[in-house]
Write a structure and sequence with these properties.
Blueprint: H1 27-31, E1 41-42, E2 46-48, E3 51-57, E4 64-67, H2 69-75, H3 84-95, H4 101-113, E5 132-134, E6 138-142, H5 147-158, H6 164-182, H7 185-196, H8 199-226, E7 231-239, E8 242-249, H9 257-274, H10 277-285, H11 293-309, H12 318-327, H13 332-343, H14 355-388
Antiparallel strand pairs: 1-3, 2-3, 3-4, 5-6, 6-7, 7-8
Helix pairs in contact: 5-8, 7-11, 8-9, 9-11, 9-12, 10-11, 13-14
Length: about 400
């Protein structure tokens, strides 16, 4: 149910005064206490352009429907204990408007037709996606028959390692390693060229990075399972000649609380950094004049930069998702482009945007531009320094 489809409680009902739209409702209808079906999930408020929306997800079909704050207020109170009069009273107290009975019945009809009310017919189960899509040059293929069960087994195996007393020291070690690597310019200026000049070492490192990308994706799935999420698909995606693994979490936006969303989004980069810890220990224990030390420095530099780059808040990186969750905004980059396009027409074109939305989209546009320029400048500087060496 999109925002356009959902009725807007509080809006005028034709030419009839609000309170008399459904005066003929029977006593049984007025006493009806509707309830959402078990498993329906309601997401938190999200800023989407000038509007605030909530997503509602069907537990069987997985379809997500978008509603506004007033519809969300009514739907979130359908717990089987409230009648029309109860909801009308709560609605009037919250919005200082009366909920027309006609809007109430229309909303119930829409929810029932979507299979979201308790007792409504089950929808047809969704058709399973094809195992393979695309062409030889570009496409994807599902490689795991039951991704949810697979990540569940991985989660049960790894659960002892997910406890805070294990993760906090590891997180501290990752932070110290990253800071030490980035503070060591010789790793970039000497280590990277040394690594590149050794074909076998470079080949093995490339294989390591490819495997770490696969573990990066699995980490998202295991973290989602840890917080009660549903992993729908694990497979490989190719853009010739590159082939990478992917892991899809269906109800990512419905995970409980901001922390869960941030942890799931950051889990991949975190695992990439964890995989570098043995190389960091090896590098630290080697003699400063050891022949392998520059190669390890190059490995650490490339690995740390590759992992941390995933946390940059630009699409389609994980940092972009994290920023969207932290800001409570959906489709941040596309909505920013839309806002800027409207803003060029003048202030009246963006009058529907709240002050918070204006600040968010303008701020993200400035920050994203600065990040792109910084990345381009940094890449150019590093290239020049390496060529001069």
């Amino acid at each position: 149910m999109s925002a356009a489809e959902a009725p807007h409680p509080g809006a005028p009902s034709g030419n009839r005064p609000p309170g008399r739209a459904a005066a003929g409702l029977s006593g049984a209808a007025r006493a009806y206490r509707p309830a959402l079906r078990a498993g329906v999930r309601i997401g938190p408020p999200l800023l989407r352009g000038p509007r605030t929306v909530h997503l509602i997800r069907h537990p069987v079909s997985g379809a997500a429907f978008e509603v506004g704050p007033k519809e969300h207020f009514v739907i979130s109170r359908l717990d089987g204990t409230r009648t029309l009069d109860d909801v009308v009273a709560a609605y009037a107290e919250r919005f200082r408007l009366r909920l027309p009975e006609e809007q109430w019945t229309r909303l119930l009809g829409l929810l029932g037709s979507r299979g979201l009310l308790d007792g409504s017919p089950d929808p047809e189960p969704p058709e399973p996606p094809p195992a393979r899509t695309g062409t030889f040059l570009k496409g994807s293929r599902r490689t795991v028959a039951d991704a949810h069960a697979t990540t569940g087994r991985l989660h049960r195996t790894l659960r002892p390692l997910l406890r805070p007393w294990v993760q906090l020291p590891l997180l501290a070690a990752v932070v110290v390693m990253s800071a030490a690597v980035l503070a060591n310019p010789s790793g970039l200026l000497d280590g990277v060229p040394e690594l590149v000049s050794r074909p076998w070492a470079l080949l093995l490192f490339a294989l390591f990075l490819w495997c770490s990308i696969g573990l990066h994706e699995l980490a998202h799935g295991v973290a989602a399972r840890h917080y009660g999420g549903t992993v729908s698909e694990i497979g490989v995606r190719w853009r010739f000649p590159a082939v990478i693994m992917y892991c899809r979490v269906d109800d990512y936006l419905f995970l409980p609380g901001l922390r869960a969303k941030l942890v799931v989004a950051a889990a991949g980069a975190y695992v990439n950094l964890l995989l570098l810890l043995p190389f960091a220990v090896w590098w630290a224990l080697l003699d400063p004049d050891g022949a392998a030390r520059p190669v390890l420095a190059g490995v650490l530099w490339i690995g740390v930069v590759q992992a941390l780059s995933n946390l940059v808040p630009l699409p389609p990186l994980d940092g972009y998702r994290m920023l969207g969750h932290a800001a409570g905004a959906a489709r941040l980059a596309p909505e920013t482009r839309t806002y800027l396009s409207l803003r060029r027409r003048g202030r009246r074109a963006v009058a529907a945007y709240s002050p918070r939305a204006r600040r968010l989209y303008a701020g993200y546009a400035a920050a994203a531009t600065a990040l792109v320029l910084l990345a381009a400048g940094g890449l150019a500087s590093v290239t020049v320094l390496l060529l001069l060496r």
